[in-house]
Input
Amino acid sequence: NKHTVNFKEFLSKYKPEDNNMFFVTTKGKHVYSEPNYKEMEEVFILFGKETKGLPEDVLQKYIEKTIRIPMRETLRSLNLSNSVAIVAYDIFRQADFDNLEEISSYFE
Output
C-alpha cells in the first residue's frame, strides 16, 4: 500500500539505527519514559494508525527501539492523540520544559 511505501522511504532516509528514533507500540519492549530524551538533540517518535499500529516487520527489525505506554493487560490500545500527548509531554518534562511557560503570570 502507498502509505507503507512512504513509511519505508522515511525509514531509509532517516535510518533508525543512526538516529534517536522510537516506535510506539503496545508490543514495545521498553517503557516510553525509559530513554533519556534530555541527552538527545533530536528525537523521532513514530506512531502507527489507531486501527492498525505500525507494520509488524518494522517492529521486529527495530524491537530494541520500541516503546510502550503502560496500560491494563485487558486494553487493546489507547487513543492515538492521548498516546502522542503522553509521550511528547514526557520528552518535554525530561528537558525541564525548556522553552515552555511553566507558571502562569495571568493573575499578576
